[in-house]
Amino acid sequence: DDMVLSSGALFLPGFAAAEVATLLAHIRTIATCSPFRHMLTPGGRRMSVAMTSCGRFGWTSSRMGYRYTSFDPDTGQAWPQMPSVFCELARQAATRAGFVDFLPDTCLVNRYAPGARLSLHQDLDEGDMSAPIVSVSLGLPAIFLWGGPRRSNARRRITLHEGDVMVWGGKARLNFHGVEPLPPGNGTYRYNLTFRKAR
Ligand code: MD3
Ligand code: FE
To answer: Which keywords annotate this record (predicted)?
Structure first.
């Protein structure tokens, strides 16, 4: 069922399907320690996606810029530990895409309510661009926008369902991507786990 989108980009539909309930339970626990919050962009705009992190580092945005921190600025505490089932899932997906020994040190947890979106961007804040990124979709479906190395490149729209996993590395690592606004729904969320090697 593996789908190669381009060199370095692999779509694994349903790869995490058996783990969905376990992953959602861990998200609840993580959010108990480091609650979801709407961060500010460096330009001062409130992000529509609510975020938290687990692992040795957590991704943050503020008027000061984007950065990885060892401590949650909202709690002053270390970010919650990355559950081993998270790490194992990310490793197995990366291995399937040919990236052996992927050891993520951070997992960003994105929460989309209806209307929330992620505008087109590149992931540029990581120290080691040779490591891939693994993304796991949970909850409501969403339309993922997948572009090329330039903002002006054409985009593909890919519907992501609960349990779908994507691996991005190599030539695809710096591609532009985003998520279309979540359609009005029934009071639930879409979650995305993004596994990265920050340092
Ligand atoms: C394609 N999150 O948090 S990662 C993000 O659905 C982010 O919330 C997406 O983009 C979400 O930065 C899922 C998908 C992703 C990540 C990195 C990529 C796609 C990528 C790097 C290159 C190309
Ligand atoms: Fe991204």
So the answer is: Dioxygenase, Iron, Metal-binding, Oxidoreductase
Q: Which stretches does DSSP call E strand in 70-197?
A: 106-112, 118-121, 133-139, 142-146, 156-160, 165-168, 177-179, 190-196
Give nearest CA residue, ligand 1 atom 3. 194
Atom of ligand 1 lying closest to residue 51 CA: 3
- Nearest alpha carbon to residue 89 among 165, 30, 1: 165
Q: Structural domain of residue 63, as residue ranges?
A: 3-196
Quote the pTM value. Answer: 0.97
Index of the ligand 1 atom closest to the CA of residue 110: 8
Per-position DSSP letters for 71-82, written without gaps between them: B-TTTSSBPPPP
Q: What residues are neighbours of ligand 2 (ion), with CB under 5 Å?
A: 123
DSSP-based three-state secondary structure for 20: helix
Q: How many domains, the chain?
A: 1
* Pocket probe mutation, ligand 1, options 52, 123, 128, 179, max atoms within 8 Å of Cβ: 123
- Please tell me the distance from the alpha carbon of residue 40 to that of residue 61, in angstroms, as a whole number: 6
* ipTM of predicted complex: 0.94
**Tens of pLDDT along 150-198?**
999 999 999 999 999 999 999 999 999 999 999 987 779 999 999 999 9
